[in-house]
Amino acid sequence: MKKKILRIVLLAGTLISLYFVPWILVKAWILPLPDNVQEQVDEAIGHGFDGMIVYVDQAGKPPAFYTGGWKDRENKISADPNSLFKIASISKLYTAVAITKMVKEKRLSLDETLADYFPELAGRIENAEKITLKTMIQHRSGIPNFTDNSAYWKDEQANGKRALDFALDLPASFEPDKGYEYSNTNYLLLRRIMDKVLGYNHDEYIKEKILIPLELKNTFFSITEVDLDDVMSGYYVGYEEDFKAREYGMMATAEDVGIFLRALNDGSVFDEEEKEIYPYEYNHGGLVVGYQSLSEYHKDIDAVVVQFINTNDFNGYEWNLSEITINRIVKIIRKKN
């Protein structure tokens, strides 16, 4: 009898656990690999994404563009590879490159602390006198992430104008350089430090030192600089609203991001000394309401892959699906290589 009860309990546990398995991810992962990237994009749209752009730059081949779904769902406008997209945290790469150049120019030092630049934050950000610029760039500062503060999301657009307030007077996540925790507050502060040292907006410095030399003519810093019709719509699962009119910082075409990412990875965005200074990552993703992006360089196939998807849900599986999708795209490229 005890064995029978145990079997029933184990069976019930198994059935319950199966109920919570994210089957959409299992399906996306185990489906046979398509023959080409376009088929993979079409398959991803079938998983529930509204629209998608993929850019592939493989050495020795002309850049390739793939699209699926909608640029604008309401007006039934198909995805356009030349659309501007809100790249969110991919912008951290541009910030890190710009800081590297300022260090080379001896305008900044990676060893200086947050308190050196903003003494008023000592006591409001724990360990401000020990947090260096380098630990901030590498997310090893221990400064709390303002987007992890639930109060921030009660009115995200309004609160974005005072985002730092949502990271002040909180305990540090860890001692500086003793752990890792991704924190948007790091880069909010780094950009303010750049502004203070430069005496003008850091966007202008990024434009002068990165965008113009690389001829990135389709990269912008605000929706106020562009025609909204050129921006890909953004959607959040369960909402009809198009989020493209919201201000989320940098926007670019997939091609511009791809050109920048190759220049970062092959070092051509730097001079020799800057290459040695650069302290951050070489690939990155981005996530804001309605938009998720991934930009990757794969050395073994000498290929840059940029993937833009205009659908997300912070509590769902959309981000995981996007990672599965780009991994499958890279596998297809490797297989054909």
Please tell me about this protein's structure:
This protein has 337 residues and is an alpha+beta fold. It is 37% helix and 15% strand. It has helices at residues 2-19, 23-30, 37-46, 91-104, 114-117, 133-137, 156-159, 184-198, 202-211, 254-266, 272-277, 318-336, and strands at 51-58, 64-72, 77-78, 85-86, 219-220, 235-236, 251-252, 284-288, 291-298, 303-309, 311-312. The strands form 3 sheets. Strands 3-2-1-10-9-8 form a 6-stranded antiparallel beta sheet, sandwiched between helices. Strands 4-7-5 form a 3-stranded antiparallel beta sheet. β8 (284-288) and β9 (291-298) form a beta hairpin. α2 packs parallel to α12, α3 (37-46) runs antiparallel to α12 (318-336) and α4 packs across α9 (202-211). It is globular, with a radius of gyration of 22 Å. The N and C termini lie far apart (60 Å).
State the main characteristics.
3-stranded antiparallel β-sheet; 6-stranded antiparallel β-sheet; Beta-lactamase; single chain; 337 residues
Task: Summarize it.
The chain is an alpha+beta fold and 337 residues long.
